[in-house]
Design brief:
The protein is of the alpha/beta class and about 240 residues long. The protein has nine helices and eleven strands. It has two domains: about 150 residues, 3-Layer(aba) Sandwich (Rossmann fold); about 80 residues, 2-Layer Sandwich (SIR2/SIRT2 'Small Domain'). The structure holds ligand BJW and zinc ion.
Length: about 240
């Protein structure tokens, strides 16, 4: 792949103290985890509104659980790719490195990133919709469904449409976006809110925005620098130059 870092981007990165990586499903695509939208997206086959919302879960918990179990199986057999690893390694070169991810796959932490804000939850956690008791993967099954000891249905600890993002995580993410020097946007459409609002907060706070995606997105016209290519190829190339 032909690649070069322009002087402005290079100097900005060399002078940067605090860096944020805002990531989406595309960063895990090269690990073998299907994205949501686009050509190979899981949502070409399954409608999001039928699965990723609370009413759908109440109506058909078995179907929603099948979907999450299927994704869990995929994730458990995947490894962090060079993009996750490059981000984790950046911790050795900058004063402050923060990952703000919309992904629920845990791959940033598995790659070694220490400060990871998970805006949409984590597939490894579950909780009871009745008493809020938290569970890991050890949820007892009753009639084929994960049920709490109180009898309530247990659901994945992820954020579905129409649900609030975890406020402490969101606020901490906003603070990092406001105070960083460089803000990377990696493998996301940038269409899902309020997560995407963090991109514009970083921009309005003066951060230098760098996007990495295989295609143009809603965000492209707002960034300082775009790299069109796979995250697992582009990120290592960028950081090998600085
Ligand atoms: C590569 C690559 C490679 C591929 N290298 N790149 C109208 C306007 C504004 C907002 C709304 C609205 N109508 C409704 C809303 C609100 C709604 C929303 O944003 N909807 C929009 C879609 C229109 N938001 C919500 O409901 C949120 N909550 C909320 O607003 O609360 C307030 C409220 C409360 C009560 C009542 C009413 C309001 C919650 C949003 C939760 C989103 N949840 C999901 C599921 C999480 C759990 C799970 O995983 O199962 O989060 S949806 C899904 O989308 C998931 C993702 O994190 C999120 C973003 O997806 P992402 O990362 O962009 O992935 P893709 O697949 O779409 O794109 C992949 C990208 O990678 C592409 O760009 C590729 O090109 C690229 N790529 N391979 C680099 N190798
Ligand atoms: Zn319970």
């Amino acid at each position: 792949m032909k690649f070069s870092l322009d002087d402005k981007t290079k100097q900005t990165l060399l002078n940067a103290k605090s860096i944020v990586f805002f990531t989406g499903a595309g960063i895990s695509a090269e690990s073998g985890i299907p994205t949501f939208r686009g050509k190979d997206g899981i949502w070409n086959k399954l409608k999001p509104e039928e699965l990723a919302n609370f009413n759908a879960f109440l109506k058909n918990p078995k179907l929603v659980w099948e979907w999450y179990q299927h994704r869990k199986d995929i994730i458990n057999n995947c490894q962090p790719n060079p993009a996750h690893k490059t981000i984790a390694e950046a911790q050795n070169s900058f004063d402050r490195v923060t990952v703000i991810t919309q992904n629920i796959d845990n791959l940033h932490k598995r790659a070694g990133s220490k400060t990871v804000y998970e805006l949409h939850g984590n597939i490894e956690r579950n909780f009871c919709i009745k008493c809020k008791k938290e569970y890991g993967d050890d949820v007892p099954l009753k009639e084929g469904l994960p049920k709490c000891e109180c009898g309530g249905l247990v659901r994945p600890d992820v954020v579905w449409f129409g649900e609030y993002l975890p406020q402490d995580v969101f606020q901490a993410s906003e603070k990092e976006a406001e105070n960083c020097d460089v803000f990377f946007i990696v493998g996301t459409t940038g269409i899902v809110y309020p997560a995407a609002s963090i991109i514009y907060l970083a921009k309005n706070s003066g951060a230098y925005l760098i996007e990495i995606n295989i295609t143009e997105t809603d965000v492209t016209s707002s960034v300082d620098q775009s790299f069109f290519g796979k995250a697992g190829e582009v990120l290592p190339l960028i950081f090998s130059e600085i």
